[in-house]
Design brief:
The complex is a heterodimer of chains A (203) and B (682). Chain A is of the alpha/beta class and 203 residues long. Helices cover 26% and strands 17% of the residues of chain A. Chain A has a single domain, classed as Domain of unknown function DUF4159 (Rossmann fold, 3-Layer(aba) Sandwich). With 682 residues, chain B is an alpha+beta fold. Classes of the chains: A alpha/beta (203), B alpha+beta (682).
Chain lengths: 203, 682
């Protein structure tokens, strides 16, 4: 059993789960830059229907297409959140009227519980860096998706802790670049990922 | 009028007296029980069930008393007994009347005293009913003297009549929070009837219901506190009332009357969303062409009623980052029932589908909840995909040409058969013939070897052929497997050791390794065949065949779409040099189960309080229960049982419920199917 934090990308049978292949490396780089968390240098891809998904405290799930869990995936996701894991779901379409949003939120409601707005003063936004709410991405108003700046994230909370975090901010596009390119940015736009990881590991 | 007619008249009078007396004693028995129950209820409130039972017992006792008395005096109906009763009072008859009744001949009886018989009978009957009627009069006056509400509670018991019970003490100084009645009116869409609860402590009501709390006395100073909100009571005659609406969150409502307090837990019951099952199509499918109609059917049910239902479809088109979506509904209905089945037909032509498009189908139902809803239930989604044209290759009717590997398998197997046949007839052949036949097989073996070499070198990205075509002794010819591997290595430029496949071999070399082995075995086989030794060539040929078959079965690599493997240099990202420095001191965060731990502490405090102040502990348990309703339902249920048991004075049941609550807080026992890491059984 390793004590390192391993960033895990959830693979599910329906949809394009691998639509943001560079995001894990970028998040890992950010964790390494700002924290002393022992972090594995590469992420892993773990199938939701595989019991090994229960080994990871944080699972990242994204895609554009409709999400429909198989029975095994649904069973494992339920076990995952019951054991205290945190599932971070990001809508790559950043479209609240889009298919991913509709199907993923329904699937989460069916599997775990209905999503509700997460207050912008939630502990997630001060778990490491201070945020006044979910940081805005450059993709939200890019002409695709719903062209809205989403003021809240959605979440399912269990015993006071976020079990499922759902984002329409399209962090999958915002953070999907090679970590070496981060040096060209004036402001690092991946800092919120630190809050996600720190919250998932400590809450 | 005959003598016998007079006797019958006397019998009627006496029977009427007997019946009236029986009824009167029966009524008195019932009244006595009711009065007793009313008096007891005035002293100590009797529950609704007990009061209903008292009424039934009173009625039964009255009937039984009347029946017993009537049975005891049933002989009044006998004419002979009536005749003897008259003879007893008129001895001068000297049994002539009894004889007349028995014989039916009234000539035996003198008519002198006949008129007095009836008078005596009436007097006797009146005497018999005098005592019970007087008793009834007394009981009736007692009933009238009792408070009307008190009698009504026993005479016609119903929920909510605790307010009708007269209070013994002074209203001015007593708490106006007892007695208390709650009337719950569910929202209209639910179709449920209003209910009433006496002395409520834990109220479960549908979200959107209206709860009206009523008590005795004026409304002044009576307040209900819900969090930071306060609701002031209003007056209705000599009673106060407070109305509130049930929200989605559980509430501990605190009623306050001067120094008196009372907590009522209001637990909202949420209207569940409809449960929907898509019956057809039963599973996902791939369609060759977007034509025809798809039959749709779905079943659904809801706890209160389904207002509307329909099928929804989403058509997704495109690939990569460019996707477009279209959606629509069909088969919309308004079932207006708790269960429904809907059906529809989806014409695929109308959707304008193209190859590669995916149609996602599901059924959706809305319930009639106009308070916190409507609740939306959805079925599983079925996906119907339209096949792309390039997918047809796998189902093409025309036979495709075998792959190079398969052709090589066939040829090598044929060469083995030829070599085996030659080896078999070898003793019967002359040397020249053997050499000719063997070299003929060797020529085919060399041609096949060149084909394999073409495949390998083409894959490795080198020249079209790594082998000479004419000159067998050319220096460029690869004679051994090591030579071939060296060529493969030069083509991929991967490692310094051409036969070191364990470490950094490329996927291309790994896949072609069996073919390289086949190539080498064929070389050895052709060498043996050249010198007319087919028997010694056969093991090499079989090795070549096995290697080719392994190449056929080798796993294909699909490099396209493989995500880039980025390995983050963690040390570099942390700008780590030789001097690591000292990290700042970080403050530990709270444990993840801190809310649960706080709840355990609160629960322990309440249990301690129960020994000293049970009413306060009950209130604390109710507040704790409200907090736990959302995320710890089992704990909340155990607390409810504990509160009920404590209220009923059942200490054993309360202890059991509290123990159950504590176990629920601590969680289920941890079981492991193996030994712990250090071999200690946990």
């Amino acid at each position: 059993m390793t004590s390192e934090f391993v960033f895990a990308t959830a693979q599910y049978e329906s949809g394009d789960w691998d639509s943001a292949p560079l995001l894990p490396a970028n998040v890992i780089d950010t964790i390494a830059r700002y924290t002393e968390i022992a972090v594995a240098p590469t992420g892993v891809v773990v199938a939701l229907n595989d019991d090994r998904m229960l080994r990871y405290p944080l699972l990242y799930l994204t895609g554009h297409l409709p999400v429909r869990f198989s029975d095994a995936e649904r069973r494992n996701v339920k076990r995952f959140v019951e054991r205290g894991g945190m599932l971070f779901v990001d809508d790559h379409n950043h479209d609240i009227d889009g298919t991913f949003h509709k199907t993923a939120t329904e699937e989460i409601a069916r599997t775990v519980a209905p999503l509700a707005e997460l207050p912008n003063d939630h502990a997630l936004y001060s778990a490491f860096f201070k945020f006044d709410g979910p940081p805005t991405t450059s993709h939200e108003l890019n002409g695709w998706g719903d062209n809205l700046v989403h003021k809240h994230l959605l979440a399912v909370r269990r015993a006071g802790k976020i079990a499922v975090l759902f984002s329409n901010k399209d962090y999958s596009s915002e953070w999907n670049y090679h970590p070496e390119s981060k040096r060209f940015l004036t402001v690092d736009n991946t800092k919120f990922a630190v809050n996600l990881v720190v919250y998932a590991l400590t809450a | 009028m005959s003598i016998l007619t007079h006797v019958r008249t006397v019998r009627t009078v006496l029977a009427a007296g007997v019946a009236l007396r029986a009824v009167a004693w029966g009524a008195l028995a019932s009244l006595t029980l009711i009065i007793g129950a009313v008096l007891v209820d005035l002293v100590t409130p009797i529950g609704l069930v007990a009061r209903s039972g008292v009424l039934m017992v009173a009625i039964a006792a009255g009937v039984a008393t009347a029946a017993a008395l009537a049975w005891r005096d049933r002989h009044v109906l006998s004419l002979e007994r009536v005749a003897l009763w008259i003879e007893e009072r008129f001895p001068s008859l000297d049994f002539t009347l009894a004889t007349a009744v028995e014989t039916g001949d009234d000539s035996f009886v003198a008519r002198a005293a006949v008129d007095r018989w009836r008078t005596i009978a009436v007097r006797r009957a009146a005497h018999a009913v005098r005592a019970p009627l007087a008793s009834i009069a007394v009981a009736g006056s007692i009933v009238f003297a009792l408070p009307v509400g008190a009698v009504a509670r026993v005479r016609a018991p119903h929920r909510g009549d605790s307010l009708d019970r007269p209070s013994r003490g002074s209203v001015g100084g007593a708490s106006r929070l007892t007695p208390l009645v709650a009337r719950i009116v569910p929202p209209a869409y639910s179709g449920r009837q209003p209910t009433t609860i006496d002395e409520p402590s834990d109220v479960r009501a549908l979200v959107g219901s209206t709860i009206t709390l009523r008590g005795r006395g004026s409304a002044g100073g009576v307040v209900a506190r819900r969090g930071v909100d306060s609701i002031v009571a209003t007056s209705e005659g000599d009673r106060w009332s407070i109305s509130l609406r049930v929200d989605a969150r559980p509430v501990a409502l605190r009623l306050v009357d001067r120094g008196f307090q009372r907590i009522i837990a209001i637990e909202p019951v949420t209207d569940a969303a409809p449960a929907v099952t898509l019956v057809t199509p039963a599973h996902d499918s791939v369609l060759r062409a977007p034509t025809g109609r798809i039959a749709l059917s779905a079943d659904m049910h809801d706890d209160f009623g389904i207002a509307s239902a329909a099928f929804e479809y989403i058509v997704s088109s495109g690939e990569g980052e460019s996707f477009t979506f279209r959606s629509g509904t069909l088969g919309a209905t308004r079932p207006n029932g708790r269960r429904a089945s809907i059906g529809a037909s989806l014409p695929l032509e109308s959707l304008g589908l193209r190859p590669g498009d995916v149609v996602h189908l599901r059924a959706v139902a809305h319930d009639a909840n106009d308070v916190s809803g409507p609740g939306v239930g959805t079925s599983e989604t079925r996906a119907l995909r339209i096949a792309r044209r390039d997918e047809y290759d796998s189902v093409a009717v025309e036979a495709a040409a075998p792959s190079d590997e398969e052709k090589s398998v066939i040829s090598e197997r044929m060469l083995i058969m030829l070599a085996e046949a030659l080896e078999k007839v070898r003793p019967t052949l002359g040397h020249d013939s053997l050499v000719t036949e063997s070299r003929s097989i060797a020529t085919d073996q060399k041609r096949l070897r060149r084909t394999v070499g073409e495949i390998v070198f083409t894959r490795l990205g080198g020249e079209s052929s790594g082998e000479e075509h004419t000159d067998e002794e050319s220096p460029a010819r690869a004679k051994t497997m090591q030579d071939m591997l060296a060529r493969a290595d030069s083509a991929t430029n991967r490692s310094t050791d051409p036969i070191d496949f364990s470490g950094g071999e490329s996927p291309v070399v790994a896949v072609n390794k069996p073919l390289l082995e086949a190539y080498n075995a064929m070389w050895d086989a052709s060498t043996e065949l050249e010198i007319a030794e087919p028997g010694r060539a056969l093991p090499h040929m079989r090795r070549a065949l096995a290697a080719i078959q392994r190449a056929r079965a080798a796993e294909r690599l699909y490099l396209r779409g493989r995500p880039p493997q980025v390995v983050v240099d963690v040390g570099k990202a942390r700008l780590q040099g030789k001097d690591k420095g000292v990290s700042s001191v970080r403050q530990a965060t709270n444990a993840s189960d801190s809310p649960g731990r706080r709840r355990i502490e609160r629960f322990a405090n309440v249990v301690d309080l129960a020994a000293r102040d049970a009413p306060a502990a009950i209130d604390s348990l109710l507040v704790l229960r409200i907090d736990a309703l959302t995320d710890a339902p089992a704990f909340a249920a155990a607390l409810s049982d504990a509160v009920n048991a404590m209220r009923g004075g059942k200490s054993a049941a309360a202890t059991e419920a509290l123990a159950r609550a504590r176990r629920s807080l601590a969680g289920a026992p941890i079981t492991r199917d193996s030994l712990a890491r250090w071999g200690i059984v946990p």
